[in-house]
Amino acid sequence: MRGTRSIPQSSKGNKGRIPFLGVGLFLLFFVLGLGADVIAPYDPWERFDPYLEPSAAHWLGTDDLGHDILSELIHGSRVSVLVGLGAAVLATVIGLCIGLFAGYYKGTPDEILMGITDVFLMIPRIPLVILLAAFLKPSSWIIALVIGLLWWTSTARVVRSKSLQVSEMNFVLSSKCLGFSNVHIIFTDVFPNIIQIVIPKFMLTVAAAMITEASLSFLGLGDPSMKSWGMMINFAFTKGGLVNALWWWFIPPGLCITLFVYAVVLLGYSLEEKEQTALGVR
Amino acid sequence: MSCLHIKHLTVAFETLTGKVVAVDDVSLDHEKKETLALVGETGCGKSIIARSILRLLPENALVRGEIFYEDRDLLKLSEKELSEIRGQEIAIIFQNPTLALNPVLKIGDQILELFRVHKRASPIGSRDYARSLLDRMGFENPAHALDMYPSQFSEGMNQRVLIALAIALHPKIIIADEPTKGLDERLKVGILKEFMKIKAERESCLFLITHDLEAAQTIADRVALMYCGQVVETGLISEFFAGPLHPYARALLKSLPAQGFVPIPGASPSMISPPAGCRFHPRCEEKLDVCRHEAPPPIEKSGRTVRCFLYR
Amino acid sequence: MPGDPVTNLMGEDYIASQESIDALKAELGLDKPLLVQYAIYWRDLIRLDLGHSYHFHEGVTQIIASRLVWTIALVGFSILFGTLFGAILGALSGWRRNDVQNKVLTTFFLWVYCTPPFFLSLLALYVFAFEAGIFPMRGFYETGAFADIVKHYFLPVLVLSLFLTSRNYMIMRGSVIQEKGKLYILYARAKGLLSRSILFRHAFKNASLPLITLIALDIGFIISGALFVEIVFSMNGMGTLIFDALLARDYPVLQGIFLFITVMVVLANFVADTVYGIIDPRVRQER
Lengths: 282, 312, 287
Hints:
The structure holds 3 protein chains of 3 kinds.
Chain A: H1 20-34, H2 36-39, H3 69-105, H4 107-122, H5 125-135, H6 140-150, H7 153-167, H8 170-178, H9 182-190, H10 195-218, H11 229-238, H12 247-279
Helix pairs in contact in A: 1-3, 1-12, 3-4, 3-6, 3-7, 3-10, 3-12, 4-7, 5-6, 7-10, 8-9, 10-11, 10-12, 11-12
Chain B: E1 2-15, E2 18-31, E3 35-40, H1 46-53, E4 61-69, E5 72-73, H2 79-85, E6 90-93, H3 97-100, H4 107-117, H5 127-136, H6 142-145, H7 155-168, E7 173-177, H8 185-201, E8 205-210, H9 213-219, E9 222-227, E10 230-236, H10 237-242, H11 247-254, E11 299-301, E12 304-306
Parallel strand pairs in B: 3-8, 3-9, 6-7, 7-8
Antiparallel strand pairs in B: 1-2, 1-4, 4-5, 9-10, 10-12, 11-12
Helix pairs in contact in B: 5-7
Chain C: H1 5-10, H2 18-28, H3 34-46, H4 60-95, H5 100-114, H6 117-131, H7 146-180, H8 183-191, H9 195-217, H10 219-232, H11 238-247, H12 251-279, H13 281-286
Helix pairs in contact in C: 4-7, 4-9, 4-10, 4-12, 5-7, 6-7, 6-10, 7-9, 7-10, 8-9, 9-12, 10-11, 11-12
């Protein structure tokens, strides 16, 4: 090939690259949460001398009641994982069902379901969640339930638009001609094609749920029977951790929340990118 | 001196499935005042050539070769120098007119934008001129049309807007990339008539990219036939249709409805791993042994060129 | 809503005589049948009288009104900065190649996006107010002087703006990346426009459409951010009002606030719909 100049470089592209940081962090917190009883140096409910500064015995010192902060921190993973995953699973299931049915049946069912979705979209969620958490019994399960019942809207919309698309495809039409029941078609033909876009949405819902749980616990509306990062910061704030410069009371739990959410969001975004690359959008 | 001198142009793309050479060592001469038609199947690389001229390719394109316009190599110019040529000296008309226009801006604004970018003052850079352009393009109420949006017009009308933009600044070259694709017969005829008018005014050279042989026959003076990223035959339009040289050209003409509608055997080759030797050989009825492993170079034959060992 | 208001007001431990309970109930209008209470509620609502707060001993409307100004100041400026910076930075980031500068900025905003707003506020408070002593610890002004108010408002507005910017940045960036690949962008280039002109004359307008929708839809997002910023910075706005009312089980105030928020949401959606319609002619045609 004769020629004088080649212009823009080829970009090998960084598609298909696994976000090692995201996966790593996620696994770290997941394992910490699962194995907290074994991993944590002490029982987080055991009382030692209060107000201890970080030392060899207590890497992050102790709080105002003498609990070892590092142990509390490790156990905090558990609540985040439970509420995060629990709420996201519930929200995704609801969103999936609504989206699938709306997109498949179209017409009036679609309008009704989307109307409901619109109403839920308009509701200011965090204030409502705070209200509900305040008046119901404070427990992680209730919190996960409430979050799950309110955070399904964005999944529903995305699933619906994809479901609309897929339902028009030939293999769905041929299934209909073959006489399969609608429900059967939805779950065997339409659903498998939707999983790919649902998973990134799921991850982002987990992230939102974790931040919400932490925020609720910060306000003192969390589950007092479980150690949560948000609650730790609540104690720091209300028991004078800030004015006494006891940074090890609130910075570690805050960092943990941020890191865990960051890991989840990274995973969510990279999965979304993969799906868009596969579609040829990027 | 020619309008355009394309020398050994090669364009490749790095994709997930491998390196695709979309345009392979293409050389074309576009003479002044003539209408050149670049013909070929969908996917043979002709649109890529059209876009390479104005350097409108995506970032992951690897371009080699030279494209001379009035003794300047377009591939070597800076983006700023190129932006002065685009729209003003070389204009392009895209395939999907409605998608080529910004849906949230008025037609008038998009036309005036062209004038503003190239700093043309009155009488050209004015609303009046824009209105007269639309009038010439057959809009019923041109003044009103200036305030409307692309979504309010049909494909055909939007295509006329693109043509209006292309001729507005009296460019030396107009590249029309599949201007009649997707239009129904009536619209097609209308658009082709427009091009005949432009040709008659003899202001610009027309570079027509199309898969429609009949359209090419109607307006073009010379034709270049592409297959799988290469130019396989060039020549005057009359000579081409009277007696095509390349076996692919012959098969193509036979496949026209008017000539018998005989399909070409075999399938279009993959651009990632094209056939060895002559790219057409798997589907050629007149192939020789040498065609299987050697790629034929362009061979001159009384003013025409053809890539085929039959003419060696 | 669980919990009898009167018992709450008097405190669970206070064992009052039946007469005093009845007297209080009569004063608060709780002795009339439920339906009548409901009717009175609507009558008062029209008169913009949202009732009387048990806890604060003031009219609910007055309480909300007095706190509202401060919250609006906080939220108003933050939305202004957040939308401006977020949209412009996000657009530039999405438009340009993904070089180091771009990656760093995106990672930074991603981090901010992942940080819960209460923690962001705490950090800011700790670092700038407590450690560095530049800004005051409590968000509410001490003297009425303008400079003083600015000093107190600086950190909260900074934090809330940062929070909103990060989200707008992400959305705008994604939106511009999507628009980048469209044909009209390429055609603008073919007409001779230079990169920056294309971004701001074409891509920006189209890309801002999803942003507008999302801003309106997610007023809840903005409210939640403001809520936590106010609480952490001890500001005298709606956020702390909600919190205090919650702890005291002050129903009238809570109902009033919730009603108010709902009205705000409806208004925001309406405004967004209108703005969207102004920008995108296709929507206007459908109507």
